[in-house]
Batch of 2 targets.
Target 1
Amino acid sequence: MTNPEEEKVTEKKSLNFIEAKVEEDLANGKNGGRVQTRFPPEPNGYLHIGHAKAICLDFGIAEKYGGVCNLRFDDTNPTKENMEYVDAIKEDIQWLGYQWGNEYYASDYFPQLWDFAIALIKRGKAYIDEQSSDEIAAQKGTPTQPGVDSPFRNRPIEESLDLFNKMNSGQIGEGKMVLRAKIDMASPNMHFRDPIIYRVVDTPHHRTGTTWHAYPMYDFAHGQSDYFEGVTHSLCTLEFVVHRPVYDLFVDWLKEIRGEGDSMDDNRPRQTEFNKLNLNYILLSKRNLLVLVNEGLVSGWDDPRMPTICGFRRRGYTPSGIHKFIDKIGYTTYDALNDFALMESAIREDLNATATRVAAVVNPVKLIVANYPEGQIEEMEAINNPEDETAGSHKIAFSRELWMEKEDFMEDAPKKYFRMTPGNEVRLKNAYIVKCTGCKKDENGDVVEVYAEYDPETKSGMPGANRKVKGTIHWVSCVRCIEAEVRMYDRLWKVENPRDELARLQGEGKTLLDAMKEMMNPDSLELRPVCYVEEYLAAAKPLDHFQFQRIGYFTVDKDSTPDHLVFNRTVALKDTWAKAL
RNA sequence: UGCCCAAUGGUGUAAUUGGCAACACGACUGACUCUGGAUCAGUAAAGUCCAGGUUCGAACCCUGGUUGGGCAACCA
């Protein structure tokens, strides 16, 4: 018997506006009660966290309502696209945990789109314009001023037909002529002012080679592709709102020409727009990310500071952490700027539940337990994850000489400092309680060794260990540890809103590159070439996740080898002590 | 001098569709802790952009404004 109160709580969670719309469409029997979505990336770059938001929606809606989500590459511009991107996109979607139904390409529809264009020309709804792009732009008017008709607008149909064929045969140079839909040059919607629907591109296409020279534009490909595939809900971001009337018009024309219904029936895809992701301290524009990579400001698309899916993966972010984040921010029609702290909290929440706890010293100083027998080694038990009893434990070696963090010793400590300071007792995690007796400094006054004495009765697990001490610090054995490189990553940009700041700096006359250099956080990467980690990590493989106790979450980098371990900091632990300072 | 869209604590998202403005992140207390993490308990923080209107009742509907975003690529 379930408690009715409990049931109420579980069904409480509200639908986002898109889910509500889908349910309404379903209730009204639209598209025969079917739900089909698509994720339509252009293969011209790597996917970033903004795409992850779209992916979660496209695949999530299909999953929730028993439909399918297909992957469709919107590959209508061969000058920017290639197969490297196609493969990377597929890898990233799968890593996020989704599997598409079919793999489609807009380029597969070039023949149907061509036929559609021919049909429009024959009906006097499209014409070849031979003006330059400047002339066309000038005639288009502005948002506040109507456009004027092209002198070619009413040329004979036969002429347009002939020239359209020539456009596609390689006889017409790029930019010499275009095919335009004849709609309304005075429309308040700029996209209705006789939009260009085909242009000449001589760059070979990554899939169709040199078969075509005339390529459809986005507006002439997207809605039609959706229609060919049977998409019911075409979800995209808010900047496409103004394209929706064009989308609908072309689908209407297509249906009519093919004799497959009219604008009034329900057998058609519908576009719905949601807010795209904006995150503070993050820059998502593909163009800008490309500059970062090409100019060597980062190590590549998968640099752990990049907001790309592959960058986040290498940084140590997890698919489930990303899902938690996407769930938290939601889908609306408000252009929000999300706080990156929400992203980090989602990642911490996920990693806290799953990451194995280990000891690692990232800023080492030697700790000598003076009264511990020289040469003696003890195997201590270390719990793998206090949040998960089934995670078990592993062994960690204890010895007379240990590595500890420099920050965990202070000669003159403030009152609330619960770590190593002369005369103070501290617990060495999983081992003994020790009392700090002093330190040794070099000629510069820097601490080079810390001294302590242990209480043999206080070994973890023994009755004497129950004594209360305020602080616990981590350590690794000098004789039984592994040297490792640790890369401490932080935010790439020092400004909260890099997009606006970039525009501002460029407005001052700075080049894009200079503006970027000025905005970059000099501490975005701090290399710690010599750190010490416990031996347990010898077997760690790339993308394994760990919590370095008291420091943060780390993953093994792809550069890591058994002889030279490399760890990336995913995100630091919350540090209320640092805040108190 | 256009068209379209939006506006709810610091941030984001809700509000049974016209009925006590709630949740998360963040912040701050305190408890607990062999991680200054986690966990637990609690506090502060919006009266819903503004002005009118409809209504017994408005965050929600209407009118007018304000502010912000989008639209003038042979990009998607």
Note: The CA atoms of residues 487 and 579 of chain A lie 23 Å apart.
Target 2
Amino acid sequence: MAGMKSSSLSAMHENKVISFEAIRIACRNCNLSTLCLPLGLTPEDVERLDTIVRRSRPLHRGDYLFHSGDRFRSLFVVKTGSVKTFAPSPEGGEQVLGFHLPGEIIGLDAIEHDAHSCSAKVLETTAICEVPFSRFEELSVTIPSLQHQMYRLLSKEIAQETEMLLLLGKKSAEDRLATFLLSLSHRLQKRGLSPTDFYLSMSRHEIGNYLGLAVETVSRLFTRFHEERLLVVDRKHVRLTDLDALEAMVQATPLEDCRRRLP
Amino acid sequence: MAGMKSSSLSAMHENKVISFEAIRIACRNCNLSTLCLPLGLTPEDVERLDTIVRRSRPLHRGDYLFHSGDRFRSLFVVKTGSVKTFAPSPEGGEQVLGFHLPGEIIGLDAIEHDAHSCSAKVLETTAICEVPFSRFEELSVTIPSLQHQMYRLLSKEIAQETEMLLLLGKKSAEDRLATFLLSLSHRLQKRGLSPTDFYLSMSRHEIGNYLGLAVETVSRLFTRFHEERLLVVDRKHVRLTDLDALEAMVQATPLEDCRRRLP
DNA sequence: CGTACTATTGAGCGCTCTCAAAACCAGTGG
DNA sequence: CCACTGGTTTTGAGAGCGCTCAATAGTACG
């Protein structure tokens, strides 16, 4: 009830909201919310976009979307589930580059060389949409706002990586895990999922690898956070019980406490 | 003489090279080589691109291209000199995000929010070209190959940041400085400048901040590299005397020696 | 030629990694 | 149902890399 009330209220604020909502729903159906959500695409444009999208049957844990070195053909949008991207090395080691949740796009780094420089592996049963890039590009030539949206999307990816760069460069192990958990929280919330209660589809090993920490350190931190009543952790299930404290922990060490000021 | 010979030889290999060369020269004049170099833009397109570019008078050490929070209006291309970008914090601390050499573009991360999230400060006397983004976007709608090039450019930026992410996440202080020096070397070489002999326009402080290291560590590493005959360093001038050894140092620790293998 | 800043060098400490082992969990077959 | 096995997670003890603090040397600039 409360939900209906607030949504009808917000719809009354602006005319735009109504058509926007329609697009949002259309996009959700075609799993392209990430591409068209923040944008004034017309329903017709959305439909055209929809025609080039390929939906695949559900993938399972361990399946690959693509391997490092593969020719770049498509962007992939996560519909449900989760995917990790990683740079494999000849000897079997690997560097985890990211975890991708519903609504997020994979493959943006491959456009330049026309080949994937990382691999993408499914972490749990996952639904994916495939967007053939050449067809997308043709489309974006005829739809200026789609082009603009694509620029924004790529720019956003850059800004996000910059954030991550900052994280790995300066922050303590504690800050890294807190930031990681808050990042998951915020991203899940954006998709209407619980920001405090979620399932970690990746192993401690993968978290550590991603954050530049040893497995043991990650494990110890989970234990400590639990003791400090910041969260309840059981196996792969996490419930954040004190978001404010986590935020404070991250905010408290922006740059000055970890690195001396520049002249 | 040797230079003439090799360039005329390469021109004979493919017809494309000739027009390509013409474009390259045209681009060098308008400082847009980064934007149009790797691409089949027609001379007419280059000219159209040229009309929207604004050249500014030389900037001097300490000048700002933009401040964090400024409205995003233009991309900036470094013609000569160098620029650092950094995220300032209220208390006066800052996080160096990158150093930008001739031919490189600044501001790609600001497209999404339509505002700059970092500041850009000139490190030495520097010539800059300004590309108003809205006009560029209009142009890229009418020139599909320009759009493609922009996608590639943004994608490249993402891939580069991923590399950096890998560096900060796992590698030792030694690897970080070696990677940093090699990165400068390669980027200078791409612009036809000496890959072994160059001037560090940034302070040790800024290098350390960028690489996630303390100033003292950076200083000690320079001393050690000097002792190990990897380079000759005098104040801000560096000459890399053993590129192979530096490359080997970085290659030797791709991922496996710094972090345990994933299962 | 002093002043302020930047860079170097040294000593000690803390965070996080490494090594090692135990606890726990999931799946398999007796 | 339970022992067995491979994998993941947790916990403990010790070591090393890089940070911090502190002092000195070198450089730019008025």
Note: The radius of gyration of chain A is 20 Å.
